[in-house]
Each structure stands twice: as structure tokens, then as C-alpha cells.
Predict the 3D structure of the following.
Amino acid sequence: MTNLPLIAPAAALILFAVWAMLLVVCIGLWRVTQVITGTVPKGGFNPGTPHGGDAYWRLNRAHMNAVENLPIFATVVLSGLYLQVQDPLFQLLANVVIVARVAQTLIHISSGAAPVVLMRFTAYLVQVLSMLAMAAIDLNAAGVSLPFPH
């Protein structure tokens, strides 16, 4: 594992947040373009209801999914930092999460076709399992004995 070019878990967390912010900037640019071109009137973006084309809505949902998962990732990373976790697997898993997050987003934005949805779910599952494993490492560092191997 030491030969892999890994970033620190805190850097992965910052990149996750930056990714979510980049997505909201893309949404903002999309909306501004729609208003400037007269395609959508000012105030024509109703929150909470699908609006715009399919690609725009996929971008919107990809952003919301990133925002929904950011606090979970932040909790496991910051807990690991607080507990001074030194496990190399923790660092590797943080890297896996950020790579899988970017992949999931790009897949989500690219298409809503059934095979693509399966790929998107796979990328999401990798993130969830990685964060669960990170949480298990955190709990172990906190002295909590888990009923399964870690």
C-alpha cells in the first residue's frame, strides 16, 4: 500500500466538499444561461420539483447526493483524525471514497439508462462500504469491540 500515491483523509474530505461546490457552480451556470437566453424566466426554477431537461435534473440530483453524503464522510474522517487513526487502510479507503464519488457523479450526469444506473449504484455501494469500513476502524480506535472482523 505504501507505493500508491495516496492523499491524506483530510485532503479527501476537502476534495469531496470542493466537488459538491463545483457541482452547485455548474447548476448555477446552467440556470444563469437559461435565464440569459430567455429559455426560463427569472424565478422559473421551482425548488423540490423536477424542472429543466433530463441532463439538468441529473446534475441537480448528483449535487444533492454529494451534499447528502458529505456529512457522513466528514464524520468518519474527522473522527479518525480526532482518534489519531494511523491505519493505512483508513487512508486508502478515504481515497477510494473520493474516487468513487467523482465516478458516481460523472456516471449520474452522463445518462439515466438502466445499465448506467447499475454502474452508478456500484460506485455508490463502493463509497458506502468504504465509509462503513472507515467507521469500523474509528470504532476500533475508540475502544469499541465490534462483533465482526475488521
Summary: The chain is about 70% helix and 0% strand. The chain has a mean pLDDT of 91. The domain at 9-141 is CATH 1.20.120.550 (Four Helix Bundle (Hemerythrin (Met), subunit A)).
